[in-house]
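I'll show a record.
***
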Amino acid sequence: MLKKSNSALPKIIGAGILCVILCLTGWYLFRKSFDYSNNETPNIFSSSLTATHNGEVLETECSSSLLIHRVGIWCSLTADGQPLDPSLLSQDSTPRGFLEVQAIDSRGSIVAENSVSYSDLNGSSYMTILSGFSYSSAKNGNLRLRITVHQTGIDPIYLKTSRNGQPDILLVGYLDSTDNRALQKGFALVFAFVFTAALGTYLLLAFSHMKLHLIFLIAAFLLSMGYELVLPIQSAPDEWDHFTQAYRVSDQMMNLPAGSAEISMRQEDFDLLPSVSHTPDHFVYSYVFGKIEKMATQTDLKEVDVSRISWDGPTYLLGGTAITLGRLLHLNSVTVFYMARFANSLLFLLLCTLAIAVTPVKKGFFIVASLLPIALHLGNSLSYDVEMFPMSYLVIALWLRMSCKEEGHFIFLKEWLLFCIPLILLAPCKVYILVCVLALFVPKEKFVNPHWAYALRTGAFVLAVLFLIFKSFNSAWSSPSEIASVHFSLGYFFAHPTRTIQVLCNTITDYKAAFVHGMIGRALGWLNVAVDLLWIFIFFALLLFSSLWTEEELNKLPAKFSRYQWVFLSIILLVIAGVVYAAFTWTPIVSDRVEGIQGRYFLPILPLIMLLCCQKTFITKRDDCRRFFMIAVFCNSFLLMEVFSDRLLA
């Protein structure tokens, strides 16, 4: 349903401006990514700076594998230390004149021409003298370049030329190759996804009455596809290990030999590990994009030793199902990997959409937290984090839904059982079972039968703990005998408290900024895909402003909300302590800092930090969640194009 509005014209103009900005950005980054240069020196002789004379004509023929659209020459406005005729030098500081440039094809026709003033040729470097044309020497013969010097002053301009007087030419254009065409199609797909996400979100927010969580689902899905392409397979932390865990589920579905220590993997899938680097670059993109949708060639099974690292939760079940489908269709390894990723991204989108839909307050914060670069990156990978922080978001959102019920509205058994599902599924997710403690603090007066409140709350938490114990029973744990001898341990903490405190203080001092940046997404992938600091500042500001409360939202909170904030604080501190302790056990004793702590580990408690900071001093008059939503989508669109361009040039 569309909104009836008298202010449609400004919104339409805004949509037009948005389109122009996106298109200009896409065009610029495309040219930046796919413009290749070919320095065509006409002969083998070394080049040197040569003074020009009025009326002098310099010609050269050049060929290139590029689709040429720009020509440059090396020029200087000064002698630049070269031995020159002293009679050409004067006290005049600025040479005056212009170059008349013509590009001529093999038939003698002028392809392009231009006049370049000396004043536009600033510095000592390759300067563009001809552009705005397209020429293929492979199809149309060598391109002949003619430069005529028109000098109105005494001082000459100096050109780098060969011994026979031909100028040193720089040709710029598109490299017409199979790999490059695949990369250009990939860039076009990324642009299509982000353009549709940004413009579609703007139009839906401006002109429709669609529910906010449904608009989020559409925008996040489009952005997810962009993240899938920009950060290809194996670029997420430990993604190969998680792929093998999902593969074990696939083996079990196909009744193939698979145990807790080995799996049966296709040879082609096994060969994928050394074929794709963890660092996305031009070669990785070429390989990955060239493999998508092709059929498998090596389907012989190979027994691979793989230790179980976690229970077969929703992430591995969905990934394993997708892998099974790909194997049955005989698709190649890259396509199968992407299918598993896509299945996981659907889980991420579902959990985040449900969290936004059910929370009665701070929808804007949940949207921004779900659209953080690190959240979208992890949510569209095979990382186990796919079910951790979105599941935590959903648990916290359901807690808010039940705790903020209006007077006369109660929690019935059906609603409580629905709350227990994500609560129990979150329990085996490392230290984040501590978030399940929220079940014990749902206000008892919100239950339809307050006498059953204690039993239901305690029962839900006990079920979560029992599920954690049951699923952890068969997990493979590292032998402590070797690890304890070289890494920090609990006994070491008590034996050396001063040393422990010093290591903790060093870690906080040196890594505090990295933790905040990591929680937003300063470095994606294996910490090797850099995101510009500007986007980190913007997303941090979005988190900050979206955490401000309106008076209407404050009125929905349960009575004596401050007592619940002590619970939030306790959970946050315990989770941080658990993360730090786990990192300590992997840190060598000789280290002066705790290694392995990443900001993404604190994503599951991000909404709790927001609730902990709830206050009545600074409140906003209206909820700007739609604006925060639009800004987050807009920033992700530009971020994706920028990162993709940077990685193509890496």
